[in-house]
Write a structure and sequence with these properties.
Blueprint lengths: L5 H19 L13 H15 L14 H29 L18 H16 L2 H18 L6 H7 L1 H17 L5 H13 L2 E2 L4 E2 L4 E2 L6 E2 L4 E2 L4 E2 L4 E3 L20 E2 L4 E2 L4 E3 L4 E2 L4 E2 L4 E2 L8 E2 L4
Parallel strand pairs: 1-4, 2-5, 3-6, 4-7, 5-8, 6-9, 7-10, 8-11, 9-12, 10-13, 12-14
Helix pairs in contact: 2-3, 2-8, 3-4, 5-7, 7-8
Length: 308
């Protein structure tokens, strides 16, 4: 403590911390840069999971429940909360100088007014929630792929409740449409929540076809511009990543572009394999052995195995 004076020490430390906030930023509740709380986004994600897998997530559904009334109430609450979070995020995006969405007419350099943000948030929420039935259908194929692909699976209930790969895929199926709608931050926060829970890191931008199965899951990394076909199976520790990044003349990284590989239909990649590069294509039905390092395309039906 400074000179043994606790109160003086506390005042000095407080002043130093507040000064660092004002000078360096890093606080999300100051003025027009206000972001929704992370806990609010996680709660939305939990509510979405309860809608796509009712009874497995969220409250138990009584056998005599009026599903029309129950689901209607859940959707109404979710829509209201999602509109608020999306609106906050779009305001933050605009005020941070990030033109992340074309959902409103910017009117030249004029900042959108409150009604414009509200309308954009409503549009995003409507378009997103209308995709939930399709998301459920995709998830049904993923659960089926896990059941058919894992001899240890005894029933689909076990897969939904226990498999970390399914947790990661579930959240990705929910986050990816938000990413496609041009909403920043929310899908990344959702994906990182799943990463923490499952050990699987899937960027919400990755495009993944039906019947996708990640066995065991731990350590799998799937980059933003990855494209994955149907009936693809990955084992633990697989990386679908990028090669070294090109730089602009000022030394900053070149953003955008296809940086991650493409996997055709029916591809199997075993544990610890690394596949890198936006021009790398793994053809339909190919098998990549464990621990392989791949930076060039592999033809359809090929088996790339470690010869040692």
């Amino acid at each position: 403590m400074t000179n043994g004076n606790d109160k003086q020490w506390l005042r000095e430390l407080t002043a130093a911390m507040v000064a660092s906030y004002r000078e360096r930023g890093g606080i999300n509740i100051m003025g027009d840069r206000h972001l929704p709380a992370q806990r609010d986004i996680v709660r939305l994600l939990e509510d979405l999971q309860a809608l796509v897998f009712p009874g497995y997530h969220g409250q138990v559904v009584p056998p005599d429940a009026d599903l029309d009334l129950l689901v209607g109430s859940q959707l109404e609450t979710l829509a209201r909360e999602l509109r608020a979070v999306v609106g906050q995020t779009l305001r933050f995006c605009w005020n941070s100088g990030c033109q992340c969405s074309d959902l409103w007419d910017l009117g030249g350099r004029k900042a959108p007014d409150e009604d414009t943000f509200t309308a954009a948030a409503r549009q995003v929420t409507t378009r997103y929630l209308e995709q939930l039935p399709v998301i459920r259908a995709l998830l049904d194929t993923d659960v089926q792929a896990a059941f058919e692909g894992d001899p240890a699976a005894t029933n689909t209930e076990e897969i939904i409740l226990c498999y970390p790969g399914i947790t990661a895929i579930l959240v990705h199926r929910l986050a990816h449409p938000l990413y496609r709608l041009g909403i920043p931050l929310l899908p990344r926060i959702m994906s990182e929540w799943a990463h923490h829970r499952s050990g699987v890191d899937i960027h919400p931008g990755a495009s993944i076809g039906p019947y996708f199965f990640i066995d065991h899951g731990t350590g799998v990394v799937i980059g933003e511009t990855t494209e994955i076909g149907e009936h693809v199976k990955l084992y633990q520790g697989v990386t679908l990543g990028a090669l070294s990044f090109p730089r602009n003349p000022d030394g900053t990284l070149v953003k955008g572009g296809k940086r991650h590989p493409t996997l055709g239909d029916g591809v199997t990649i075993y544990a610890g394999a690394t596949i890198l590069g936006g021009e790398t294509v793994i053809g339909d039905g190919a098998v990549i052995g464990g621990g392989m390092w791949i930076t060039e395309s592999v033809p359809a039906g090929a088996r790339v195995l470690n010869s040692r």
